[in-house]
Amino acid sequence: MIQSHLGEIYALITAVFWTITAVCFEMAGRKIGSLSVNYIRLVLAFVFIGVYTTFSRGMFLPLDATKEAWIWLSISGLIGFVIGDLFLFQSYLEIGSRVSMLIMALVPPITALLGFITMREVISVSGLVGMFITILGIFVVVLVKNPEGNNFMFSKSIKGIAYAFIGALGQSFGLIFSKIGMGSYDPFAATQIRIISGIIGFTVVFMFMKRWDKLKEAVKNKEATKYLLLGSLFGPFLGVSFSLLAIQYTTTGVSSTITSIVPVLIIPLSIYVLKEKVSTKEILGAVISVIGVSILFVI
């Protein structure tokens, strides 16, 4: 039974890891900015994975990867880490990690559609229903009735919502390119290739924006470094690697849908760690999203 659901189990573990990392990176971002957080956490994750693969595979760098794997995984890293996460982390500062991660639940239908187009992955009718309910939960949180009319309006910053949506697009495309490039290759080594391309991409961004001084200040911030270390361990190291493990054993649509339970997992941390006030409607929306995930997972 467990063997037949390994992909789903790995996706569930990924959701737990991403819950922790989202809170850690929001707290670090408040102190040093999202751009510095992105760069430093990738460098830390590169070291974490290199140490791990030295013991697990006998090599610090993924030198045994094929040229095709390097190409596709590098593209995945640029799209997922540089474009997707750059906007996602900025949305943390605009609307908070809790609402941002809820909007990231849009990843499943986007990924499922891309998976069908590129790899002919099929999602069952119950899966489609589960995805629809998940999306409904998002709308419950981000939409409110306009007091001046019969239409609806956004309850959160439109800019923050747009940033999170772009982050969702980046993660969806990143997953697809990862699955194409990884095949049966070691997921941790595959993640390291993605991270290398992400570091190169952010280096170009820092050179273009001339933000090296900000990065030097960020490195010296001890409080932010504590959250960065924890977030990098559970995010681009364990989280991303387990997400790649998940898509080796199940479809990208199923995997990304299960990881969308982060909005519910993050509620206790938002209340007790981030000291946020969470409304009943927001909790309801997150629960509805999880019901959608459950339908996909159980049926």
How are the SSEs ordered, and which strands pair?
Elements: H1 6-32, H2 34-56, H3 67-103, H4 107-119, H5 125-142, E1 143-145, E2 152-154, H6 158-182, H7 187-209, H8 212-219, H9 222-249, H10 252-258, H11 262-272, H12 280-298
Antiparallel strand pairs: 1-2
Helix pairs in contact: 1-2, 1-3, 1-9, 1-10, 1-11, 2-3, 2-7, 2-8, 2-9, 3-6, 3-7, 3-11, 4-6, 4-10, 5-12, 7-9
Describe this structure in words.
- The chain has 299 residues and is mainly alpha-helical.
- It has one domain (3-298).
- It has 12 helices and 2 strands; from the N terminus they run H-H-H-H-H-E-E-H-H-H-H-H-H-H.
- It has helices at 6-32, 34-56, 67-103, 107-119, 125-142, 158-182, 187-209, 212-219, 222-249, 252-258, 262-272, 280-298; strands at residues 143-145, 152-154.
- Strands 1-2 form a two-stranded antiparallel ribbon.
- Strand 1 and strand 2 form a beta hairpin.
- Helix 1 (6-32) crosses helix 2, helix 3 (67-103) crosses helix 11 (262-272) and helix 5 runs antiparallel to helix 12.
- The radius of gyration is 18 Å and the shape is globular.
- It starts with 5 loop residues before the first helix and ends with a helix.
- The mean pLDDT is 84.
Strand order of the largest sheet: 1-2
Helical percent range? over 70%
Count of β-strands: 2
β-strand percent reads under 5%
> Taking all residues together, what is the mean pLDDT?
84
Question: How widely separated are the two ends?
Answer: 14 Å
> Runs with pLDDT <50, length 5+?
none
- Overall geometric form: globular
**H/E series:** HHHHHEEHHHHHHH
How does the major sheet shape up? 2 strands, antiparallel
Individual helix count: 12
Q: Which structural class fits the helix and strand makeup? A: mainly alpha
User: How many discrete domains?
Assistant: 1
What is the radius of gyration? 18 Å
